[in-house]
């Protein structure tokens, strides 16, 4: 059920929303974490793991997330969601 809700949520995102996030030089930490989850869902590459000394946790892969945002804006939302392969093996660790 969570997977279905996630897919339905992705379909509500507009290109303008993504454009707003892309403009942020240093977005809030939570947005960067959500984008990391998106990278995992879309089986995209993550940056090499390094520690964020300010937050005492792994640094988010913001550079890779911006690449996904550019791709997201260039195609329709439904096409982007259809291109991803979702299954419980990918989604369960994110919960």
Give a verbal description of the structure.
- The chain is mainly alpha-helical.
- The chain has one domain (2-94).
- Helices cover 58% and strands 4% of the residues.
- The chain has helices at residues 2-10, 15-23, 29-41, 62-74, 77-83, 88-91; strands at 51-52, 57-58.
- The chain has a two-stranded antiparallel ribbon with strand order 1-2.
- A hairpin with a 4-residue loop joins β1 (51-52) and β2.
- The N and C termini lie close together (12 Å).
Alpha carbon gyration radius? 13 Å
Please give the share of residues in helix: 55-70%
How many separate domains make up the residues?
Answer: 1
Note the quaternary state here. Answer: single chain
Mean pLDDT score: 74
Q: Beta-strand level of the residues, as a percent range? A: under 5%
The tally of beta strands, per DSSP, is: 2
Structural class designation: mainly alpha
Low-confidence segments: none
Distance between the termini: 12 Å
Helix and strand element order = HHHEEHHH
Largest sheet: 2 strands, antiparallel
Strands of the largest sheet, in order across it? 1-2
* Large-scale geometry: globular
Q: Helical element count?
A: 6
Please supply descriptive tags for the structure shown above.
95 residues; mainly alpha; two-stranded antiparallel sheet; 2 strands; 58% helix; globular
Summarize the model shown.
This protein has about 100 residues and is mainly alpha-helical.
């Amino acid at each position: 059920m969570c997977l279905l809700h996630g897919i339905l949520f992705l379909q509500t995102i507009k290109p303008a929303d993504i454009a707003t996030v892309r403009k942020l030089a240093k977005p809030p930490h939570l947005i960067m974490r959500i984008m990391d989850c998106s990278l995992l869902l879309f089986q995209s590459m993550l940056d090499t793991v390094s520690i964020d000394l300010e937050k005492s946790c792994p640094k988010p892969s913001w550079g890779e997330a911006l690449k996904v945002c550019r791709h997201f804006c260039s195609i329709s939302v439904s096409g982007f969601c259809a291109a991803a392969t979702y299954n419980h093996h990918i989604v369960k660790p994110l919960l």
